[in-house]
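Collaborator request, handled under Task 6.
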Amino acid sequence: MKKWILSIVTLILLLLPNYVYANDADFYIESNMEIKYDKGDKFVTVEIEYIREVVNNDYYFPASGEKTFLIPDLLSQDEKKISVEREFKRDSLTVKDASGNNLGFSIEEDENGLSVSVPNYKRTTRASPYRIYLRYKTHDYIKVINQNIVLQAPALPKDTEFEIVDENSNTRTSIDYGLEILINKEVAPLAKIWPTDYSFEEVEGYDKYIFSSHSRIDRNPYLEFGTSQIFRFELNYQTPKTDSFIPEKYSEMFSALSTNIFEISLPRYFDETNQKVKIESISPTPTKISRDEEGNIIATFEVNANKEGNISVIGYVWVEQEEFGQARNIPNISLDEYRNEINSNEILSKYLVTTKYWQVSDPYIQEEAGKIADGETHLLDLIKADYRYINEKLEYDQSKADSINNRIGAKQALQGDASVCMEYSDAMISILRAQGIAARAALGYANLRDASETTDSQVRHQWVQIWVPDYGWLSVDPTWESENMNIGPSIDRVLWETFNGDDLSNTKIYSADSLDSINNIQFDISIYAVEENDIDDMDVLKSYEKIGPIEESTDESSIADQINKFIKASSIGRSVAIVVPVFLVLIALIIIIAIIRTIIKALKKRKQESTI
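Structure tokens returned to the collaborator:
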């Protein structure tokens, strides 16, 4: 009965004329944004629908003045890209009225972007609302990586006003900011969306995602389409000549006379994104491919030290994630249960220790970690609390990223020193370990694009991995700096290697010669997204196992490696390598001479006997 009465009341309210809500507002303004993406484009079309209605018959807006719209710049771009993008927006900009007629407008530029001013073309009354439709194209809100689409819409500022009261006229204006994102139905499946309080509609040829004004306060709506990606990587080391003593002809006969040994880390396998690696070419053939206790892949190359050379590795990396709604669940187990499991596991408990840059036992780190953990009872909730804390404490310093990046460690970063991804990661790992959460550093390449937008050589990125029972290593990137936390699998990146201590590279060089020239070795790596049909011949691709058996790191293999490095890439070892062959040759000559002399004596004796 109550539901029936409520339905009748609701129906009556809906049928009442518009002036019923005039007591709440005298004017009503809508500023609705529509972002539309069509498959195959590298840009989106943005339409701003501006509606001004007079609710109270006592008022009207005259046909004077103007309405100004700001088309903002993407702040992460440099001046050149901003200038090019502004021109692209200008060329596509149109302003129309409700009947589709073009309206005149003027444009001014400032440090924030383009300001588009549109004169009020008509009087606004209760019976005649005022409408403007501003439309332009932009690359700012969209990232297209082959078949994968990432779309990020603008947030509303924290101080956004939804109601304005004019004290002079005692009038009230109600304001709403709608957002609709239309995606062509032919694009890849939806993988991620945030915030999750949205509504969904299907329109002809498009999927429409609708976000309310309040869901956008200090939140950038984020949509990601695509569940897999392929990256091509090209790695090159220019190996210098470091030995001018041993001639090439001798080292060609006996390589140990002049050898440099390079241990180079290569992209690894990883369960969370089902990351797989296949090699197209590798030159020279590595003497060994090994896997350390972290699961990192390390290839060993032995090259001539007495001539210049090149180490080249070209291959592909496959990564995957689930469709939205089908992603693996991240267990949010109780902290007591979690800590008991970690502390009782000798292998996992090593991911809790303090190091030079992860000052877990430092009183300041301990105190901060305790404050964050206070009141938290479950693992995932604590991880999110740590994420928020890191983002509040640290501010990304672009000038440090563009210069020599000296590692400062967690404590200095948390106390205000300049920070980039390394500090975000170090700080979060220290806090997590201080809370009894097993964590390690992950390094690789992130925010990857396709070949048309990639650079020749890329900079490594660092993030965090946390051990979660019944899940494995969970990736967390605190540098993301958003309420939309980057937690879980991401297909915009390649994981290269992981670390439990202060070292952040498995690439090592062993040489008997001065390392001055080797320290300046030219190291280039290029990684970019490709499609499967870009791969010329899938049959030529080889897994690491097909190139050579992967050796698991053991004490015995470590001893054998050290002996090999000592003989081939140390001064003493190389001296031994030079002296021993000479010594053996001398012994051989002495023996041969002795044998010859013995034979000659025997022949002389026989001749004498035959004469007698």
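The cover message to the collaborator said: "The chain has a mean pLDDT of 88. The first strand starts at residue 27 and ends at 37. Please let us know whether this matches your experimental observations."
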